[in-house]
Amino acid sequence: MKTLFTAVAALLLASSAQAADTMDSAKLRQTVDQFLQVQSAGLPGKVTVTVGNVDQRMKLANCPAPEAFLMPGTKPWGKTTVGVRCTAPSPWTVYIPANVSVLGNYIAAAAPVAQGQPIVDSQLVTMQGDLTTMPASIATDKAQVLGRTSNIAISAGMPLRLDSLRKQSVVQTGQLVRLVSSGPGFKVSAEAKAVANAAEGQVVQVRTTGGQNISGIARAGGMVEVAF
Q: pLDDT of 120-163, one tens digit each?
């Protein structure tokens, strides 16, 4: 009986020592969770991080300071994979699946929007969903889209993408514009003709009455600011 007790005690001690020398999977998952919480802190919405399971068949040496990282090209939102590595005392690297959802507002069309039609408030609706599953460059605020025109026809319910919208032109091709340049103690203006369309703040080329091409910044009211 004493021999059996001694054997069981030795086995328990060996198992305890082995467990102490093995990396805890809960700590690995906690490392990934904390890393993704930091990486997603600036996303516009309520962030929820879900870390996948760690393969229990792996026996990784215990690590006092595991380091999480993202592989090149990997994003810290949606379905992703986070690497965790240890440099000492025993180097190892493991990859753990995770999902980062961002519940937030996005802007969709409340009614059909024709191509080239200026977008007004009555055509928009604010909806809520997981932004990580939305199209790229999704609009999240009406101010981002009001007054712009779409490069494509938009059907009701479709999310609005900033990369498919453009600002309304404040300068039209062939339009007579006023070139304005100012500085400390002076202001000069002259008449010219726009060579292309341009939205507020865009660079546009104009041709002066003398035939000279000049580039400037398009402004509302048919004005082009020029820096000399």
A: 999 999 999 999 998 878 999 999 999 888 989 999 999 999 99
How many Å apart are CA 158 and CA 87, to the nearest integer?
Answer: 48
Closest CA to 58 of 31, 95, 87: 95
* Cis bond upstream, residue 184 (ω within 30): no
What DSSP state is assigned to residue 226?
Answer: -
Q: What is the pLDDT of residues 11-24, one digit of tens each?
A: 333 334 344 578 89
141 Cβ contact partners less than 8 Å away, ≥ 6 residues apart: 105, 107
Structure tokens at 181: 């340049």
Q: How far is CA 83 from the centre of its chain?
A: 21
- CA proximity to 117, closest of 141, 151, 140: 151
Residues 6+ apart with CB under 8 A from 170: 198, 199, 200, 218, 219, 220, 221, 222
Would you call 28 exposed, middle or buried from its count of C-beta atoms within 10 A (0-12, 13-18, 19+)?
Answer: buried
Q: Record the tokens describing residue 228, joined without a space.
A: 């000399």
| 65 CB-contact burial (10 Å; exposed 0-12 / middle 13-18 / buried 19+) | exposed
CA torsion, ordered 117, 121, 124, 125, to nearest 10 deg? 180
What are the two backbone dihedrals, phi and then psi, of residue 17, each rounded to the nearest 5 degrees? -65, -40
- The C-alpha R_g of the chain, in whole angstroms, comes to 30
